[in-house]
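Q&A log
Question type: sequence-to-structure
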Amino acid sequence: MQENSDSLLAGSHDRELDLSRADALRREVCCSDSLSFLMEAHDGLSAAIAERAGFKGLWASGLSIACSLGYRDANEASWSELVDAVERIVDSSRLPVLVDGDGGFGNFNNARLLARKLRERGAGGVALEDSCFPKMNSFVGNRHPLADIEEFCGRLRAVKDTIGKDLVVVARTEALIAGHGMHEAISRAHAYAEAGADAILIHSRSSSADEVLSFARIWQNRSPVVIVPTRYYRTPTSAYRGARISTVIWANHSMRAAIAAMRQVCDRLVAEENAATIEPDIATLEEVFDMFDYDELARAETHYLHPITLQQARSKPSPAA
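Response status: OK
Response body:
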């Protein structure tokens, strides 16, 4: 009975933590009077680095997670692989995580299953896009069929009925990506807000921010607006503040930075066959150990291991000996 009681208490504590992350994300995305920024994370390391840099929230990027697993961003990674990656991101920082849930990996039933699993793993929110399964990355090719509005609203309602206020639900419309124009984007945003979405993510592949700024002007802040300036990165941030944009997502920058850095180091090691000139340009082992608080493990060892056990463990010969 005591074990069951302890398990219930632990579960209650975990749930409180998850809800606090959802509340923290809601403050960043939905309730903040100032512009918020979410940084991409695709694993525990990128999450820890983003937190140390000072970001207040994370974007679990579908593209970046797919790349880290060796997949294309075309629903080649399964929903369970996404959920597992999110768990590592959540466990590696204290920041709220908004998860790129693509279109929900199918119909309303797949979407609500995904949302329930993300809640269990500690996510703070999920963004669902009005794409058809399987989706294709927004910046690849020109074929981006949109889901029927009513069908996608059904996905949103199913998710909200499943998780209530435990997750922030962001509805992402690909209307501009698919070339359907502003009227379609606005119509879909209205429908998605009525279906229960907490915020609207308006996506664009244009190199100018004119489309998203026009959307924000017409939308008139009926609900928070989230943008992803991957292509229109030259736009000054003041333009987003002036348009009362709620949240900017830096959607893939850690992954792209990692690719560039790893490629450079690998090329140099192949060419030079020596690491002497490379060491000054890469993180030290001490920085790696500090990132994940190895000192805490030593303190815990002293606290929890019986002194005799600790002494025996340290004096025990290694297998190689």
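Response note: Residues 1-13 have pLDDT under 50 and may be disordered.
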